[in-house]
Amino acid sequence: MAWAYLILAGVLEIIWAYFMKKSSGFSLLVPSAITIVTMIASFALLSISMKTLPLGTAYTIWTGIGAVGAFAVGVFVLGEAVNPMRLAAALFIVVGIVMMKLSTTA
């Protein structure tokens, strides 16, 4: 169950990052509120997953899901630039996530 909590925490991290961008520096109420609520939920689920999973594994996977997910949302939803170097960087993050998962027995 810890892995499910961790993945959901990562998805919530993507959501709060997107709404933080949409909040215009926390000057818009609804996106700001969504940011704060999803941020708290993401941290709570990360904390729950850390009861079972090692710190390094949980935190690396959580931030990796958030980083790659936010990159994808930036490209596909917000129309941000994509180039070979950015794609390679995202791929390296995914490889690191997979390696971290494979190296953890919990």
TrEMBL record:
This is Guanidinium exporter. Keywords: Cell membrane, Membrane, Transmembrane, Transmembrane helix, Transport. One of its GO terms (molecular function) is transmembrane transporter activity. Pfam families: Multi_Drug_Res (PF00893). It is found in: Cell membrane. The keyword Protease does not apply. Its main location: membrane. The chain crosses the membrane at residues 27-46, 58-79, 85-102. It is a multi-pass membrane protein. It comes from the Bacteria.
